[in-house]
């Protein structure tokens, strides 16, 4: 292997190349510092987001429990309302049946009253006819006595 001699020109080129590499290393170091700062900032933001997510999770669980409780309350109210509606329906049906029976009884009473009224009218006519006969008979007796 042959030994190569370094002259000033080659040494200057090597020095320039080393300077460029050093500059790039410095730039890379600065970029690493910037990336590290960004990573630390992102890490802090991730922690903040995680804290917010945890808080939101607790709120969702709390709202879920409240919603479940409210659903149970509403279900109980709905069940009670259903029983009341059913009870009211039975009462309304009973009232409708009673009203129908009452109408039928009234109609029967009206028919009976109409029949009795017809009977009364017949009796009145018969009574008037008998009364006329008696009056005529009395008038005839009075006329014959005179």
Strand residue percentage: under 5%
Kindly report the average pLDDT value. Answer: 93
Outline the low-pLDDT stretches. none
Query: What is the terminal-to-terminal distance?
Result: 196 Å
Label the overall shape. Answer: rod-shaped
Radius of gyration based on Cα positions = 59 Å
Write the layout of secondary structure elements.
Blueprint: H1 8-145
If you had to describe this structure to a student in words, what would you say it looks like?
The protein is an all-alpha fold and 146 residues long. Helix content is 95%, strand content 0%. It is built from one helix and no strands. It has one helix at 8-145. The termini are far apart. The model has no long low-confidence stretch (mean pLDDT 93).
